TrEMBL record:
The keyword Signal applies. Keywords: Signal. This is Uncharacterized protein. Residues 1-22 form the signal peptide.
């Protein structure tokens, strides 16, 4: 009788776990498919102080094997006519994750100190121009996937971009706090 009770309790636990719903498949679930995901936002923005950051995917869905069309904007909305910002090679970062494979797509950046002048009400815009990187320690499937991304040949999947703009309004040595405005968008790549 005690064994039967334990079995029923275990069965009930498994049934309850199976009936639970999740917004997206669990990471590492190799059976996850692009159809299991719903695109939530192809445009997002964040505001901090006198700056607005926008992150945009031109489409909700792209064809497999081709590029994607993403861009970021930074707009100054303060009281001055112009303002200088200080940043690495670009103030914009486009790191992303392909969720069906649980692959991170890194976004490297050269780090010289560059000054850009923003004019009030005129957004600075930059298109996504590719990303990715791997080491010889990564598995072959990840390396092959990353090589495709680096060649702007996105494979079928569900991609989430956790983009951000990172910059200062005074040279960093002056102790000025930096801005890091973040936004998240997503899109699908499907076989057509």
């Amino acid at each position: 009788m005690k064994r039967l009770l334990h079995f029923l309790l275990l069965l009930l636990t498994l049934l309850l776990a199976a009936c639970g719903t999740a917004e997206e498949p669990a990471n590492g679930d190799s059976s996850a498919s692009v159809e299991d995901y719903t695109v939530k936002a192809t445009e997002a923005e964040a505001t901090e102080g006198d700056f607005i950051y926008r992150l945009v995917s031109e489409k909700e869905e792209y064809a497999s094997g081709g590029p994607v069309e993403l861009y970021a904007e930074l707009e100054y909305i303060g009281d001055l006519e112009t303002i200088d910002i200080f940043h690495a090679a670009s103030p914009f970062y486009f790191p992303m994750e392909e969720k069906t494979r649980s692959y991170e797509i890194h976004y490297g950046m050269e780090e010289p100190l560059i000054t850009t002048t923003l004019t009030k009400g005129e957004p600075l815009r930059e298109k996504y121009s590719g990303s990715g990187g791997y080491s010889d320690q990564d598995d072959d499937a990840y390396i092959e996937f990353t090589k495709n991304i680096m060649n702007k040949q996105f494979l079928e999947g569900y991609y989430v971009v956790e983009g951000y703009a990172d910059f200062y309004t005074e040279p960093p040595e002056n102790g000025q706090p930096n801005y890091k405005l973040q936004a998240e968008i997503d899109f699908k790549v499907v076989d057509k």
